[in-house]
Amino acid sequence: MELPKPETQGGRPLMAALADRKTNRSISEEKLSAQMLSNLLWAAWGVNRPANGHRTAPSAMNVQEMNLYVFLAEGVYLYDGPSHRLKPIITGDHRAKTGRQADVGKAPVSLVYVADFEKYTAGGAGRGVSDPSTQTAYSNAHAGFIGQNVYLFAASEGLACWFRAMVDAPALSKLLNLRGSEKVLYGQGVWYPAKV
Length: 196
Known about the structure:
alpha+beta; NADH Oxidase; 6-stranded antiparallel sheet; 8 strands; 27% helix; globular
C-alpha cells in the first residue's frame, strides 16, 4: 500500500504537544486520511536520516528489531520504514484483537509492537546481545520510545491515542503468523477524539 510522502514540517510546538500529551479512551470511528496515517507512521518509526537509515525513535546499537503492524478496517499491514510503505499481511478487520479492553476495535488505526529478538544476534557491527533479559529490556524501551512518538504526534495534530499492555500476545502471534523469535509487546490505538 502506497503512502503519501510524509509531511515533516508543521504541527504544534513540542512544549504545547507535551502539555497536551495524554491517554484518551473516548474513541471516534472517523477514518484518518492517508496523509495523516503517513505522517503518523513516519513520526512513530520512520527513517529521519536516510543516509544511514536511522529512525525517529532510538534503537540500541541500531538493531531496529521493532516491527510495527498497522491494523485498519480493511486489513493488517506491516510498516516498512525505509521505503515508507505498508506491506499487506492479512485482509479483513482485526482491530478488535489489538487489546483486551472494550471498544479497541472502534479505533480507525491500531498499532501492534512486535520485537524480533533474532536481530540481536544477527550479523553486523554492534550486534551480539544474547542475554534474553537484556534483549527484552532493550525492546521494551524501544517500544516505549515509539509509543511516545505516537503520543506526541497525536497531541501535535489534535488526535487521541491509547497505549495498551493488555494484549492477547499468543492470539496476535498466531494471527500474524510470527516466528518463534518474534514477540508481541504492546498495542496502541489512534483516532480523532470523540465529540462530546
